[in-house]
Amino acid sequence: MTKLRVINFAVSLDGYGAGVDQTLDDPLGTDGERLHEWAVQTKWFGGPGSPDGIDDRFIDAGFESIGATIMGRNMYGPVRGEWGEDMWTGWWGSNPPYHHPTFVLTHHAHDPIEMEGGTTFHFVTDGIESAFEQATAAAAGQDIRLGGGVSTIQQYLDVGLVDDMHLAVVPILLGAGERLLDRTDRLDGFGPPEIVASTTVTHLTWRKA
Amino acid sequence: MTKLRVINFAVSLDGYGAGVDQTLDDPLGTDGERLHEWAVQTKWFGGPGSPDGIDDRFIDAGFESIGATIMGRNMYGPVRGEWGEDMWTGWWGSNPPYHHPTFVLTHHAHDPIEMEGGTTFHFVTDGIESAFEQATAAAAGQDIRLGGGVSTIQQYLDVGLVDDMHLAVVPILLGAGERLLDRTDRLDGFGPPEIVASTTVTHLTWRKA
After folding, report:
1. Closest by alpha carbon to A165, among A183, A179, A181, A176?
2. Do A183 and B192 touch (CB under 8 A)?
3. What tens digit of pLDDT does each residue of A106-144 get?
4. Residue A99 DSSP SS3
5. φ, ψ for residue B150, nearest 5 deg
6. Would you kindly state where each structural domain of chain A is located, as residue ranges?
7. Nearest to B171 among A172, A195, A198 (CB)
8. Which of A9, A14, A167 to mutate to test the interface with B (most CBs of B within 10 A)?
9. With an 8 Å Cβ cutoff, are A187 and B200 in contact?
10. What would the pLDDT profile of B143-178 be if each residue is shown by its tens digit?
11. CATH number assigned to the domain with residue range A4-81+94-207, chosen from the 4 options 3.40.630.30, 3.40.430.10, 3.10.310.10, 3.30.1490.100
């Protein structure tokens, strides 16, 4: 049975999943890169490995048994409004790290973009449920990773489609930006989380109760 | 050298150290008791012990080498304004768990109250620095525990007097109440925290850099 899973999504101690002012140079907004220092030091990202190996295990697990990805348009790129002439193909170069069908939520239609390595970006204009159905079909029995950003995860939480959610809580304060858990009902329907600490972050994993 | 230490102070995942509407029945405000379920199950509080023993160790450590306590008036009791006729002596019965001089910040003078078991409540009306000085003298070389609540801790953080701060982050959302880390500068001057997870909470300990 295909699950919709949030995996390795980083939030600050004060709850922000991204800073303000996303730009081409700052894909996660001002100070947002500080949310990902723990991740970029892992071997998967080409780093030396996390100090105790725990973050490496979580990052690696985020790519196992995943047959499709769903993401919001802001995670796909900085373009707003109509796509225009610019041939934006994501932040990840010619060979993105997904290697499977990847569904981008947008209000603006766009032909699919086939990348190297098995990633094809599909642009979904008819809503989050449609994206979920298409991703479920594409995943062929594997799970779907819900990439982000904050607004996309909130929308799927609000319709109860998220099966499990793994957040990496980074012990820094951003003070502004997009706050993931801004309402108390967003954890309704999940049991108490599993808690695992590395030397750098706290991994919290909620599963549907 | 006497340190001023925040120990075992519980905050929700969305950062609240207490809920709203503190009353005699709800000393921590609406839902605030949920912040302390992890603590009351420890042996120190007369519970069965925490599932993995980790929370027990943290709770026990919170009473070691402490020679004085400072707390805000709201932590001491629900009385507001003038003390009046009511002989309030704290939430903790005739033998409070402090067993040392305990300094209560207030705008309203009150004679010291000597309790059983070594706790004497002293009421300090001339500010947080004065309370710190009096507590330092009383601690006689041991450390001072800064009890809370949120506003009291914030005031001491803002003048840079806190040497280390241990928060127990409880993976629940309160959505309203008193938010401890509501400004990004409140962690300035501390290094990255030590992170220890139990099965129920995350223990974060910052020390002066």
Report:
1. A181
2. no
3. 999 999 999 999 999 999 999 999 999 999 999 999 999
4. coil
5. -55, -50
6. 4-81+94-207
7. A195
8. A14
9. no
10. 999 998 999 999 999 999 999 999 999 999 998 888
11. 3.40.430.10
Per-residue tokens: A140: 């062929």
Identify all chain B residues contacting A200, using CB atoms and an 8 Å cutoff: 192, 195
Q: What does the pLDDT read at residue B84?
A: 83
Residue B192, chain A, CB below 8 Å: the answer is yes
| B202 bridge partner residues | B169, B197
One DSSP character per residue, B126-160 reads S-HHHHHHHHHHHHTTSEEEEEE-HHHHHHHHHTT
Tell me the two tokens of residue B195: 């992170």
Give me the total of CB pairs closer than 8 Å, taking one residue from chain A and one from chain B.
Answer: 66
**C-alpha–C-alpha distance, residues A43 and A63, integer Å:** 13
Q: Which residues of A53-74 are buried (b: 16+ CB within 10 A; e: fewer)?
A: ebbbebbeebeeebbbbbbbbb
> What one-letter code names the amino acid at A163?
D
Fold observed for domain B4-78+96-207: Dihydrofolate Reductase, subunit A (3.40.430)
Contact between A173 and B195 using a beta-carbon 8 Å cutoff: no
pLDDT tens sequence across B51-66: 999 999 999 999 999 9
Cβ neighbours around A125 below 10 Å, total: 13
Read off the pLDDT of residues A151-172 as tens digits, 9 standing for 90 and up: 999 999 999 999 999 999 999 9
Inter-residue contact A116 to A95 (CB < 8 Å): yes
Instruction: Name the β-bridge partners of B190.
Output: B208
Write out the two tokens for A122.
């599909």
Q: Which of A162, A143, A142 is nearest to A152 (CA)?
A: A162
> Whats the size of chain A, residue-wise?
209
What is the value of pTM for the model shown? 0.92
Low-confidence ranges of chain A (pLDDT < 50): none
d(CA B32, CA B13): 13
Alpha-helix residue ranges (DSSP H) falling in chain A: 37-40, 54-61, 73-76, 128-139, 150-158
What's the complex ipTM? 0.89
